[in-house]
Structure formats: structure tokens, C-alpha cells
Design goal:
Layout: H1 6-11, H2 16-19, E1 35-39, H3 60-63, E2 71-73, E3 80-82, E4 85-90, E5 96-101, H4 115-126, E6 141-148, E7 151-156, H5 163-167, H6 175-178, H7 183-186, E8 202-208, E9 212-217, E10 230-234, H8 239-247, E11 253-256, H9 258-264, E12 270-285, H10 295-304, H11 307-313, E13 319-321, H12 343-353, H13 355-358, E14 364-368, H14 373-389, E15 393-397, H15 400-408, E16 419-425, H16 434-437, H17 455-466, H18 470-487, E17 490-503, E18 506-507, E19 528-529
Parallel strand pairs: 1-10, 1-11, 14-15, 14-16
Antiparallel strand pairs: 2-3, 4-5, 5-7, 6-7, 8-9, 9-10, 11-17, 12-16, 12-17, 13-17, 18-19
Helix pairs in contact: 10-12, 17-18
Length: 531
């Protein structure tokens, strides 16, 4: 077990930017004229691990440049507007959504995008054999009707007021290219990284494994030909490598850690972009195993971790504490237990729960997919704080693919991940909470990777999703949030701000620190380079 003290852990904040190697990769041999290069998959919203957008849990900053959904959030994540659908409406009873498609939309091979593609994509997304993580979220859809090529009607077995939010994440896929493939073969198909077809402003050109992906401008884009000739997505082993490449002029954009963000706050030739992440970080309790069955043990974890000290010393104050899975807006209850740092109370709770007999001093793996030094320091701090009250953990930082394989795998051994440190979308729509907490959303059909099963929470989330009156809907979500705060399906930590840096040579560039990197309209056809 790491014997680092809490004080030492917090001191590491000032050194985290120096801890990672500042090694530059060789720039890819590309025609650089009017081509923007970036670390589009750097950071928490980054590398998806798979190019299949149905299975990706991140990486949509990049995927959204060549795939598109029916509807997008605007860059402020406050309003859902047109994507491939020019307009849409819901029936008064909430059981049907009609989408009127853009007749100018084409696939990158020149074929027209039609309602048949919508029906095909929804079918794939509902089928967990494709690797889709949206199967449970789309379960209310009973059928997709296509009265004509430009109209798709999604019929629902029951109202689902969060459906539009889900649809911002589902990239439309070409029936004429994928329709002959067996759904089960799509999950790991090479098609996604060799010849994918989208409808976005840029089209796939090539992929060099572990190094970069190239896109070229799609002259037939329905909203106008892109101003850039192409885009390059460089892969980096660390954010420090990406920052070094940015400073060297090898790339023009990357995500940066909070400590590095300070270096760019007043930079002469770069623009710092900052915003709330809409991602709540949490300590996940694997509900399959009996260690966390007693609520008092979960409460002890909350009281043991000095969340405010970590936010102040390691996150530079750029985070807001979370006491449930939803932290802003009308779905947040006014009065929640704040679980203040109280090691003595944590010890009392553990003693009352019989923790010595439940687990004793055996170290518990605590896995995460965050590979950066900052999270390493956060985990070291948590390890020290939990160890002081008798909960001994062994942090492991994994790559995204390995992490997902463990927590989502069909043959997962629960003791491989009794604890996790992860992040989950907590907005803009509160309905997103269902995918992480409803019992029927456990893998492979959903994102409830901690296998939470709390009947009261199931009932509240289901009722909220079916409520078409917005005031009543928010009241139900407040009840669900209060239940989360009381029952602690997760140990809720904080919502951090996220940062990106773009060179001042880039014009009209839009980047939002959205969950998973996407779901919003970047208007990438307008991006340009000076000169």
C-alpha cells in the first residue's frame, strides 16, 4: 500500500504539471496547407477506445466532426436544436416524436440521407449485440415509421421526456453501407476505422494506429463547404505531451489540465477556453459485492474523504462539490446532506457496521480510466484519507479500453473493481441520471456499471421520465436526487471545470467541455486558419 501522507498528497498539486514526460511525438507527414491539427481526444472527454459511435463512451469532440445526430445541443448546452433534422415536434401525450430531415443531407459517398437511415440507426442502437450502450435508454421506442424519405416518426410505448437528450449522442449511420452486416459483427468491425461514412463537414481519410487520424473536407456538406482543407487528430500519451506539442506549434488545439491552464491564462498567442464539465466525479461502490451493503460504510467513505481540501489543493478550486448526481438547475433539491469531512464519525460508522469483520485491513482495488498525473495525485490523497479510518485501497490507473472491459464485461469478476473513481454526465438534462442508476440499465444494455439496484430510485426516475408536465417532472427528479443523497449509490465528489487551449491562428473555433466531448454543434465547417 502507498504510505504517502495526506499532507504530502496535497503538496503534489504544484508538481503535477512537471510529473509527466514532456516528450514530443514526431509530427505526421501530412500536407499541412490549411489543415488544423489538434489533440481532440486528449483529456477526460477523449479517446473512445473504439471508433464505433454506438459503443463509444467518450471521444465525441472528434467523432462529431464526421458523424452527426438528428439533434444537437447548442455550444452552451442549454438548448436542443436542429442537426440532421431541420425541425422536430413531440405529440401532446409524449408518445411520438416526428423529425423532418434536411433534404440536402448526403453521406460522404454522395448518397442521400433518408428516414430509412434513421430507422436503421435506431435499430442498431437498440440492439446490444452491436456494442451499443444506448439499448436500455431507447427501450421506450416501440417503432420507427418512415412515411416518406424526409420524415421519421419515433413511436414510444410510454412517454420519455429525456429522449431528445439521448438522441444528441446517437450518430446516424448509413443503411446502404452497413445494412448487409450482421449486427454482432459491427461491435469490433474494422469498418469504423477504415472506411466509415458520415454526413458531417469532414470525411474520413486515414488512420495510423496510435498516432493520428486524418479527415478531409466534404465539399458536399449541406451547410456549406468547410473553410479548412482537413483536420488531423494527434494521439498523445499524456496531456503534458499535448501541451508541449501545442507550445511547439505542432498542433493548434488541445485539452489541458487545470494546473496547465494557468500557464495559458494570459498567453499572447493562445486562447484559453473554460467551462463547467457537466460531469460529476464519484467514488463508485460495486453493489454486486456485500462490502457496501451497509449504508453506514458508504457514509463513512464520504466523511473520510476531505473533498474540499482536494478541490482547493489539487483542483485549484476549479470544482464544485457534489452531494448527488445532479448539481445544477431546477432538479437540484435545496437541502442535502453535505457529508462534511469527519474522520472520527467515519470510524464510528465503520465500527457500528462491523467493518473489521467485513473486510479488515485487506486492500481493495480502486480503478479508474483517468491516466493523468493529476488524478494520480487525487487517488493518492483519497488512499491516505480512507486509510486513516481503516478503509485500505490500492489505486490503479487503466486505459479506457481496459477499464470498460472490466466494468462492462459479460464475465466481469466483481472483486476486480470493488471501488472506482470515474465521471458521469450530470446534465444538462436530469434524465441522464437514469442510465447510471436504474436497475435495468446495467451492462451490456446501459451505463449502470456499478450495478446499483435501489427500488425507490428506480420508481422515481421512471416516473420523472414519463411526466410530460415540466414542473411535475422536475419535482420528481428532485425526489430522485434526494434519494441519491440519502442512499449514496455512489460516493459523490465534485463537478470540475475543464479547459482547452486553441492557437490564435484558428478562427471561428468552437469547443465545449461537454460530457464525453460531444452532443453539441461545433459548426466545424466555419473553422478557419489565418493566412
Amino acid at each position: 500500500m502507498n504510505s504517502i501522507t495526506r499532507r504530502d498528497s496535497l503538496r503534489l498539486a504544484s508538481a503535477s504539471a512537471l510529473a509527466a514526460p514532456m516528450i514530443l511525438r514526431a509530427a505526421p507527414a501530412l500536407a499541412a496547407t490549411n489543415v488544423l491539427s489538434g489533440g481532440f481526444d486528449v483529456g477526460p472527454g477523449g479517446l473512445p477506445g473504439k471508433f464505433n459511435p454506438l459503443a463509444a463512451t467518450a471521444g465525441f469532440t472528434w467523432l462529431n466532426l464526421y458523424y452527426e445526430p438528428l439533434v444537437f445541443y447548442d455550444p452552451t448546452l442549454s438548448h436542443i436544436g436542429p442537426g440532421l433534422a431541420l425541425k422536430f415536434e413531440a405529440s401532446p401525450d409524449g408518445r411520438a416524436y416526428t423529425f423532418h430531415l434536411d433534404p440536402k443531407a448526403k453521406w460522404h459517398d454522395g448518397q442521400a440521407f433518408t428516414s430509412a437511415d434513421v430507422a436503421f440507426t435506431i435499430g442498431l442502437a437498440k440492439d446490444d449485440k452491436t456494442g451499443s450502450i444506448f439499448s436500455a435508454s431507447l427501450a421506450p421506442i416501440s417503432s420507427v415509421e418512415t412515411p416518406d424519405a424526409a420524415t421519421a416518426v419515433l413511436k414510444l410505448a410510454k412517454p420519455d421526456t429525456s429522449l431528445l437528450d439521448v438522441l444528441t449522442k446517437i450518430m446516424m449511420l448509413p443503411k446502404h453501407a452497413l445494412g448487409s452486416m450482421a449486427p454482432a459483427s459491427l461491435a469490433e468491425s474494422a469498418w469504423w476505422h477504415t472506411r466509415p461514412l458520415g454526413t458531417g463537414p469532414f470525411m474520413f481519410k486515414s488512420y495510423t494506429e496510435g498516432q493520428f487520424v486524418q479527415l478531409s473536407a466534404f465539399a458536399g456538406y449541406r451547410r456549406g463547404a468547410p473553410k479548412l482543407a482537413g483536420l488531423v487528430n494527434r494521439y498523445f500519451k499524456s496531456t503534458a505531451d499535448a501541451v508541449a506539442a501545442l507550445k511547439a506549434g505542432e498542433i493548434q488545439f488541445t485539452y489541458v489540465e487545470p494546473n496547465d491552464a494557468k500557464l495559458f491564462a494570459h498567453a499572447a498567442h493562445d486562447r484559453l477556453i473554460a467551462g463547467a464539465s457537466y460531469v460529476v466525479n464519484y467514488v463508485g461502490f460495486n453493489h454486486i459485492i456485500p462490502l457496501w451493503k451497509d449504508l453506514r460504510v458508504r457514509q463513512a467513505v464520504m466523511h473520510a474523504i476531505d473533498r474540499q481540501a482536494i478541490v482547493k489543493s489539487l483542483l485549484g478550486g476549479a470544482a464544485t462539490l457534489a452531494n448527488c448526481a445532479y448539481t445544477t438547475g431546477p432538479a437540484l433539491p435545496p437541502h442535502l446532506d453535505a457529508y462534511p469531512h469527519d474522520p472520527a464519525k467515519a470510524k464510528q460508522l465503520l465500527a457500528a457496521a462491523g467493518w473489521d469483520k467485513i473486510n479488515g485491513a485487506k486492500p481493495l482495488p480502486m480503478i479508474t480510466y483517468y491516466g493523468d498525473p493529476l488524478v494520480g495525485n487525487i487517488l493518492a490523497a483519497m488512499q491516505s484519507m480512507l486509510g486513516q479510518v481503516g478503509i485500505h485501497v490500492a489505486p490503479r490507473q487503466l486505459d479506457v479500453a481496459t477499464y470498460n472491459g472490466i466494468v462492462r464485461g459479460a464475465n466481469t469478476n466483481p472483486m476486480e473493481f470493488p471501488l472506482t473513481y470515474a465521471g458521469a454526465q450530470d446534465g444538462p438534462d436530469p434524465g441522464v441520471m437514469a442510465s447510471f442508476f436504474e436497475t435495468n440499465q446495467a451492462p451490456p444494455v446501459g451505463a449502470n456499471v456499478m450495478r446499483v439496484a435501489i427500488p425507490a430510485l428506480d420508481k422515481e426516475l421512471s416516473a420523472a421520465a414519463a411526466e410530460v408536465d415540466d414542473a411535475k417532472r422536475m419535482a420528481l427528479y428532485r425526489q430522485a436526487a434526494a434519494t441519491m443523497n440519502r442512499e449514496l449509490p455512489w460516493g459523490f465528489m465534485w463537478v470540475a471545470r475543464r479547459y482547452g487551449v486553441v492557437a490564435d491562428t484558428v478562427q471561428n473555433f468552437v469547443w465545449t467541455p461537454a460530457p464525453g466531448g460531444g452532443g453539441y454543434d461545433p459548426s466545424a465547417q466555419l473553422w478557419a486558419l489565418k493566412g
